[in-house]
Amino acid sequence: MLDLFTVSAAEWLERWFESDPIKACFGFDAVVGNYASPYTPGSAYVLLHHVFGEVNGRKGSWGHAIGGMGAITQAMRSEAESRGVEIRTGKGVARILTRAARAVGVALDDGTEIGARCVVSNAHPRALLALLGEEGGEWREALGHYQSESATFRMNVALSELPQFSCAPSASAEPHHGSGIIMAPSLAFMDRAFASARELGWSREPIVEMLIPSTVDDTLAPPGQHVASLFCQHFRYALPAARRGRRSASAPRTR
After folding, report:
1. Torsion of CA 162, 168, 174, 179, to 10 degrees
2. Cα atoms in the Cβ-side hemisphere of radius 13 Å centred on 10
3. Which of 74, 164, 187, 232 gives a 20 to 30 Å CA spacing to 180?
4. Are residues 78 and 58 both part of a single domain?
5. What pLDDT, on a 0 to 100 scale, did the predictor assign at position 181?
6. Is 218 in the same domain as 153?
7. How far is CA 226 from the centre of its chain?
């Protein structure tokens, strides 16, 4: 357990595997959404984190929401309202109300104030600090230094047909079409993607995972056609000044 929290994903995987592609397949879960190299200490835990869960009783699996991602929030809304929760949309929270160093409600941007025994927030820690105004405490400095660089680039595309792979050609959907298709052949490739993003703002050769959710949910595309999602990294949240507002021949391309 101590190893998983301290060593790099690369060090952990190299204890178990020899094949570069196999290590890359597992190593992707150590860097997905994580602005780091698979050689970064602590990235082994990120790998562990991504295989904790389960879908429909299958441990370590991920799944697609039937009906698209919006189906998740609609299911959450339905369950919450069945338990008496009131949901307000189109209302921004201007600030969190406090009294004696405790949260006692929120003020909306239209001036409405809502009192509460406690306030639960899923806002980014720095956004939460802004909502708290000058409210302070020992926790404030820690939250103020919170780092979360891991910006990514998402591209959604419509496909007239399924992509063909030379190693497994097929005109119809096969198991590999319903899997996460990772375009990053080795841990060294992933390390270079991180290093170039750190220097240039975005990877010269990004790590790309392609998912084709229409292979398991035919409501997402017309018959015989498909949609795919490309999850690309690494990209800096704030680009270096020299690269802001300009296009470059070294910008990533998807093929």
Report:
1. -80
2. 14
3. 74
4. no
5. 94
6. yes
7. 22
| Weakest-pLDDT range from 19-28, 201-210, 238-247 | 238-247
Phi, psi of 162 (to 5 degrees): -70, 145
- Asked if 154 and 236 sit in the same domain, the reply is yes
* 53 and 165 co-located in one domain: yes
**String of b and e for 15-48 (b: at least 16 CB within 10 Å)?**
eeeeeeeebbbbbbbbbbebbbbbbbeebbbbbb
Residue at a domain's end among 144, 174, 203: 144
In this structure, how many other beta carbons lie within 10 angstroms of the beta carbon of residue 128? 15
Rounded to 5 degrees, what are φ and ψ at 107? -110, 130
Q: Which residues, including other chains, have CB under 8 Å from residue 23's CB and lie 6 or more apart? A: 10, 13, 14, 17, 186, 187
* 251 is a domain residue: no
pTM across the whole model: 0.80
Mean pLDDT of the chain: 88
Reading the block at residue 45, the tokens are 């835990």
Same domain, 56 and 153: yes
Distance, CA of 27 to CA of 214 (rounded, Å): 26
Cα separation, 35 vs 190, whole angstroms = 11
* Structural domains in the chain (count): 2
